[in-house]
Amino acid sequence: MGINSSKRLAAKCSFLSKDxxxxxxxSFKLASKNSDKIKEEEITKLWxxxxxxxxxxxxxxYLFGKGEMRSQTVELERYAELxxxxxxxxxxxxxxxxxxxxxxxxxxxxxxPYILVKEYVESIVSSYMKIQKxxxxxxxxxxxxxxxxxxxxxxxxxxxxxxxxxxxxDCITRRALEVWLQGSTIFGQLxxxxxxxxxxxxxxxxxxxxxxxxxxxxxxxxxxxxxxxTRSLVPFCKGLDLIPSFPSILDLSQLVFINAHLPQQYQLxxxxxxxxxxxxxxxxxxxxELYYLLMEDASNRVLTKTSSILT
Length: 311
Hints:
311 residues, mainly alpha, two-stranded antiparallel sheet, two-stranded antiparallel ribbon, 8 strands, globular
């Protein structure tokens, strides 16, 4: 099956936009090696190095099924469905992906163990962090050069914070999952970023992208484009060029969590303005400069405050 055949198949998927047809058909062509179906080992080869191993297993569960119902191959429509559901799907569609990824039937009304959902969320968070490191854009570089690394412990904590609404019991009802998916905008952003990367950046890295689309050309530095919703939650670190030895007190998971809770106009760039080590201990200077304050105590705990609270 050539690229034109994969395009024709994608065009038959009425739920795909024209831009999505190009992304999905190119990605499908690369994974299937010009066939009309993809094998599980081909998904593993294409995406295995790009994500947490648990997420790879969840994706394979969704695409190929589980147990006696497991299929040897997946066709383009199912492959395209996963992309759409994870990047712009409804609550019901995202819930379908979650449940089937965990090996459960989305039509079942049985409760889902909290620990399974937390593992699913953690696999998305962990994959997001891994992709940040692999892509290595200037935003990530600006923090990594300041000692802002990826702590597995804080990846787990971020996942727990995203799923904290579900932690009231050992099992979660379908209705509780629906409410959580509806309100968990940060998880939705991470899901969008991860699957946009898997379907578009992978084939760009393989240099087969002869047709460029708005989505594949989007960068984090272009907040006014249609693709600004897919931008990373890692801001650019600015203002430390002349202070080479000044380290970050945050790791990447903490940085993403804080940035996601800021107003959007502050999410693209963080500018270093004040440090008691450099600027002294003038409280009036501090509150005159800062919007957001990070404090590390003697026990290495990081506390945060907005300047509106300080004034």
